[in-house]
Amino acid sequence: MQPHRKRQWCIAQLTANFLCEMERVLDVYALPYDERFPVLCFDEQPCFLIGDVMAPVPMEPGRVAKEDYEYRRFGSCAVLLAVEPKTGRRFAKVCARQEYTAFMEDLERAYPAAVQITLLQDNLNTHHGGSFYKFMAPQAAHRLVGRFESVYTPKHASWLNRAELEFSALQQQCLNRRIPTLEQLRSEVEAWVAARERAGVTLNGQFSTQVARRTLGRHYEAIHIK
User: Fold this and answer.
1) How many CA atoms lie within 13 A of 112 on its CB side?
2) pTM above 0.70, yes or no
3) What are 30-47's pLDDT values in tens digits?
4) Quick check: 121 pLDDT over 80?
5) How many structural domains compose the chain?
6) Could you tell me the residue range of the domain that residue 71 belongs to?
7) Mean pLDDT confidence for 13-29
8) CATH number, residue 48
9) Which of 35-39, 100-104, 134-138, 201-205 bottoms out in mean pLDDT, i.e. has the lowest?
10) What are the two backbone dihedrals, phi and then psi, of residue 60, each rounded to the nearest 5 degrees?
11) Would strands 117-121 and 39-52 be described as parallel, antiparallel, or unpaired?
12) For a pLDDT cut of 90, what percent of the chain falls above it?
């Protein structure tokens, strides 16, 4: 027994609806690149603004940097992020509060020649065209809804959203330290996005519909009525 240890994961019920929605997501990833119909993955995360109470001791040759365990909170904010997996084009926005509608407007402006934008996202209740109607006139909201085709990951399957990979990299490379102000966080995130794009980082997954049917074969069999 090791009561100090635990593991955490999302347990999904692999129902017929789950498998259908999962395959829809995987089919979107398998589409050939078409600049008229760009595919973007979107996600957002809360972020706390944290600063030092005592000034940290900077690193020196032969000595690591040191910081006091005590810290001060300066509020919270939201980081919104979208990535086009096949091209590596990225968009990030640091906001004092959740600004889903404004971010979708930014994405639309970034693709003026697109016929329609496929937006892969999780099924959070605010990730819906209905949010547009709360902040826009009906005519403008209706037009913006038509610019996007929303594809949702199944419940407890946000790991299918490749924007999660971007947030994992962002957390490890940028957010894993104390950042006290909204302005500094915004600057750091913008610099991180620019560096990722200069490096040409794309997101090419190996999990396809064929792999899913082979790996999860027993779940397909369990829901099939013979």
Assistant:
1) 1
2) yes
3) 999 999 999 999 999 999
4) yes
5) 1
6) 17-223
7) 94
8) 3.30.420.10
9) 201-205
10) -140, 165
11) parallel
12) 71
For residues 48-53, give the mean pLDDT.
88
> Does 157 fall in a domain?
yes
Query: Amino acid letter at 178?
Result: R
Question: What 3 state SS string does the chain have?
Answer: CCCCCCCCCCCCCCCHHHHHHHHHHHHHHHCCCCCCCCEEEEEEEEEEEEEECCCCECCECCECCECCCCEEEEEEEEEEEEEECCCCEEEEEEECCCCHHHHHHHHHHHCCCCCCEEEEECCCCCCCCHHHHHHCCHHHHHHHHHCEEEEECCCCCHHHCCHHHHHHHHHHHHHCCCCCCHHHHHHHHHHHHHHHHHCCCCCCCCCCHHHHHHHCHHHHHHHCCC
Distance CA 151, CA 120 (A): 5
Residue 198's φ and ψ, nearest 5 degrees, are -60, -35
Q: What are 54's two structure tokens? A: 């005592």
Q: Widest CA span of the chain, in angstroms?
A: 70
Q: Which residues pair with 51 in a beta bridge?
A: 72
126-175 confidence digits (pLDDT tens): 999 999 999 999 999 999 999 999 999 998 888 899 999 999 999 999 88
Beta-carbon count within 10 A of 180 CB: 16
Domain assignment present for residue 12? The answer is: no
Within 8 A by CB and 6+ apart from 84, the residues are 38, 39, 40, 41, 90
Tell me whether residue 7 is in a domain: no
For tokens 């016929």, the residue is 115
